[in-house]
Specification:
CATH superfamily: Ribosomal protein L30/L7
Subunit structure: Part of the 50S ribosomal subunit.
Family: Belongs to the universal ribosomal protein uL30 family.
Number of strands: 3
Organism: Sulfuritortus calidifontis
Radius of gyration: 11 Å
Strand content: 25-35%
Pfam families: Ribosomal_L30
CATH architecture: 2-Layer Sandwich
Distance between the termini: 12 Å
Helix content: 25-40%
Oligomer: single chain
Keywords: Ribonucleoprotein, Ribosomal protein
Number of domains: 1
Length: 60
């Protein structure tokens, strides 16, 4: 797992659990439709899995 993952925030964090908002922030996402490219690590995958209903991810 040494690749990269592109993560895009596709749904607002308003009304979600506090720890889900913190996971989105931890991924580096602040605004709707913002994308970031991250290293493919188990911790990043865990955060993406926790908020999979808010984000879209693709392996680059």
């Amino acid at each position: 797992m040494s690749g990269k993952i592109k993560v895009t925030l596709v749904k607002s964090v308003i009304g979600t659990k506090q720890n889900h908002r913190e996971s989105v922030r931890g991924l580096g996402l602040k605004r709707l439709n913002q994308s970031v490219v991250l290293e493919d690590t188990p911790s990043v995958r865990g955060m993406i899995n926790q908020v999979r209903y808010l984000v879209k991810s693709e392996v680059i």
